[in-house]
Amino acid sequence: MPRVAGIDPGTVSFDLCILQDGEPVVEEVFETGSLSRDSAPLLGALARHGPYDLVYGPSGYGLPLVAAADVGDRELAEMVLVRPDEARAETGIGGMRSLLRALANSGLPVVFGPGVIHLPTVPRHRKYNRIDLGTADKVCAAACAIVDQSARRGIRAHQTAMVMLELGGGFTAALAIDGGQIVDGMGGSSGPLGLRAAGALDGELAYLLGPALGKNTLYSGGALDPAGRLEVTDLEALWSDPKNAEGWTALLEAATKAVRALAVSVLRPYEIIVSGRLARLTGIIDALSGALGDIAPVLALVPGRASSAARGGALLADGLLGGPNAPLADALCVRKASGSALDYLRVAGAESISLG
User: What is the per-residue pLDDT for 90?
Assistant: First the structure.
């Protein structure tokens, strides 16, 4: 039976989950800032707990299921989506490109998976002028949510239905899942307000920022931390501090609007599943239950020490190898992913985009 791993590249932490025969045997968490300076701790942990049949790597904005051996400069550029003028800057998740390159060259059986926009299960019209419908780690979080709902309700993967709300340490994203397939999404940089990140930018704001609009702009402007540098350690303290009340109101209202918008794309969700770092806050779950209980019950997804996205990546790796989670990989259609995150742009000037 397969031994597999999944890696979640979060704004606050990188999470590693290793499965043996479909069951978790190792979960480790690494601080993102430290990995941006030195990827050795993550690579060392992978080496220490191997060998593996497959590693589902941290894929950024995603690729249509590409093996590490086939990753070149273009594939790396599509995973990080950085302009040539910022190619050498520490933008976004610092050091992500070097970490991806190190994983690709590690000799491990690494595969880089799709983002939501690569999936054939999302109708083409929902992809118009979108890049971030949900990054590759959101696909992995959805995989974990599908397996969880399937087990709890005693149904098959292709019978699951939910709106998944990912409340991370930086971004907020949401996905519509129907029949075990992702059918719509709002990615962190094109969706609701996040804890440290602004979410979708007003087009006029983007225009007026002009040259000042860089990758790091996307990691700022959040509900609790406009500068994007908040230490997300003691969540309970952040939740209970009166000075954060307005910020929490803004975040929760934005999340509620996102779920209600995606209810258009999945008409009969069994549940609204909240994943991500903030899912550990009971106050968040209670507040969302009050705001969204008329649609479906609101449940937290906290699978273990590692994130739901890390667990989901490992579940997908297991499924791709024909392990116990093969129906999951089939339902999500990750093998049928195709194209580029830039394929659906219809605005003036899109033809001039280049990647560094």
Answer: 63
Domains and CATH numbers, the chain: 3-352 (3.30.420.40)
The number of residues making up the chain comes to 356
User: Mapping DSSP to helix (H, G, I), strand (E, B) and coil, where does residue 25 land?
Assistant: strand
pLDDT exceeds 90 at position 59 = yes
Cβ neighbours of residue 351 closer than 8 Å, sequence gap 6 or more: none
Alpha carbons 54 and 111: distance in angstroms, whole number: 7
- pLDDT given at position 193: 98
The string of DSSP letters for 28-87 reads EEEEHHHHHH--HHHHHHHHHH---SEEE---TT--SSEEGGG--HHHHHHHH---GGGT
User: What is the percent of the chain where pLDDT is above 70?
Assistant: 98
Distance CA 199, CA 255 (A): 11
CB 322 within 8 A of CB 43: no
Tell me if 184 sits within 8 A of 262, measured CB to CB: yes
Residue 272 pLDDT: 98
pLDDT in tens, 1-44: 799 999 999 888 999 999 998 899 999 999 887 887 788 999 99
Q: Which residues of 181-201 are buried (b: 16+ CB within 10 A; e: fewer)?
A: bbbbbbbbbbbbbbbbbbbbb
